[in-house]
Amino acid sequence: MSTAPTVDVHAHILLPEIEALVSGLPGHDAAKELDARRNGPAALAVSGPMVRERILKLTDVTVRLKSMDAQGVDVQLVSPSPSHYHYWVDEETAEKVYRTANEATAAHCSAVPDRLRGLGLVPLQHPDLAVRALDHALEQGLAGVEISSHAPGRELSDPAYEPFWTRAEETGAILFLHPFGCTLDERLDRWYLSNTVGQPVENAVALSHLIFSGVLDRHPGLKVIAAHGGGYLPTHIGRSDHAWSARSDAGAGCAHLPSSYLKRLYFDSLVHDPHVLRELVRAAGADRVLLGSDFPFDMGAEDPVGALRAARLPEDDFDAVRGRNAAALLDLTLI
Questions:
Q1: What is the CB-side half-sphere exposure of residue 151 using CA atoms within 13 A?
Q2: Which InterPro entries does this chain map to (predicted)?
Q3: How far apart are CA 221 and CA 282, in angstroms?
Q4: Does residue 73 contact residue 46 with C-beta atoms inside 8 Å?
Q5: Are the C-beta atoms of residues 137 and 145 closer than 8 Å to each other?
Q6: Confidence of residue 1 (pLDDT cuts 50, 70, 90)
Q7: DSSP-derived 3-state class of residue 334
Q8: CB-based burial label for 12 (10 Å; 0-12, 13-18, 19+)
């Protein structure tokens, strides 16, 4: 039997102090209106009460630990709620946001450092601040930072992020790619399509930018974890491979078949379908998939280990995804 802990790499914390920082600032109302348009009134009516019901799990360490124990999770990698990105704020406010997020997340995790590791934030809308924000997160003892799939007017392939990728590679920082908001906007404003379709789309687009632009060629040591199993990309990567082989424009930016880069990335297991999870493990490799629950939101897995077990992976693969891979990535002491 393995001695590796069970590690959930997709768990969130809510930080009211960040919302207090941005409330009332120019642009705040417009950002809220955009979010409302993208999600639609029915989704907002459900999401508000859902979050309120989970406030203690999102903020109270004792309640978090009880929930982890009930799930059979030994360690969580805790990242701020993506609602805290606020990529619309100016540079001065952005620095306050990332410092507050990094320090508050570190304080939350430091209460039980053997069970909680943390990630900070980086203001992608201001690339010149990205390295400083990453360094600040690492100085707090965090394992890395969480980023969205894009910032307004900038894709992850933007050359302005090159210093950030360089620094992340140098330091071995973990980059947790977790989208917030889909640019398909009102096309997804009913039936919670903004999340069910939007999140997988954003994951696939962001990863494609990293792959096709050559970011992963230039920075092969990057430690990127894609939330939601990487979205649609891993199970539809054959289309990318075909384009790379058949078209000069598609193949101009990266050196190898797009599918080969899946084995340079990490993916959480949160795909909500055992057959899709098996295909993710096949496409990326059992050593590249990590247990993820999206704790404690309603689009997460209440029993992440049970969801993993439902995929009926070989025992060694099951154990790798359950915790061995993440324990190695986070340099956890085996327990």
A1: 22
A2: ACMSD, Amidohydro-rel, Metal_Hydrolase
A3: 22
A4: no
A5: yes
A6: very low
A7: coil
A8: buried
Which residue, among 4, 7, 6, 8, has the nearest Cα to 293 in the 3D structure?
A: 8
The number of CA neighbours under 13 Å toward the Cβ of 314 is: 7
Q: Domain-by-domain residue ranges, the chain? A: 7-329
Q: pLDDT for 112-151, tens place per residue?
A: 999 999 999 999 999 999 999 999 999 999 999 999 999 9
Cα separation, 286 vs 294, in Å, equals 20
3-state percent helix, strand, coil for the chain, nearest multiple of 5:
55, 10, 35
Distance CA 87, CA 328 (A): 32
Dihedral sign for Cα 284, 285, 287, 290, please: positive
pLDDT in tens, 276-302: 999 999 999 999 999 999 999 999 999
**In this structure, what token pair is assigned to residue 239?**
């289309």
Helices within 172-197 (DSSP H only) = 193-196
Examine the pLDDT at 233 and tell me if it is beyond 60.
yes
Eight-class DSSP state of 27? T
Task: For residue 184, give the DSSP letter.
Answer: T
- Long-range contacts of the stretch 65-72 (C-beta < 8 A, 24+): 65/112, 65/115, 67/295, 67/296, 68/8, 68/115, 71/8, 71/293, 71/295, 71/302, 71/303, 71/304, 71/305, 72/6, 72/305
Give the residue from 73, 43, 67, 70 showing the smallest Cα distance to 54.
Answer: 67
175 backbone dihedrals φ, ψ, rounded to 5°:
-115, 115
Contact 116, 67 (CB under 8 A): no
CB count within 10 Å of CB 32 equals 11
Distance of CA 277 to the CA centre of its chain: 17
Q: At what angle do helices 127-139 and 162-171 cross, to 10 degrees?
A: 20
The class level of CATH for 7-329 reads alpha beta
Query: What are the tokens at 274?
Result: 């055992």
In the three-class reduction of DSSP (H, G, I as helix; E, B as strand; rest coil), residue 207 is classed as: helix
Is residue 25 helix, strand or coil? Answer: coil
CA dist., res. 304 & res. 270, Å (int): 8
With CA atoms as reference, report the closest residue to 81 among 111, 45, 50, 112: 50
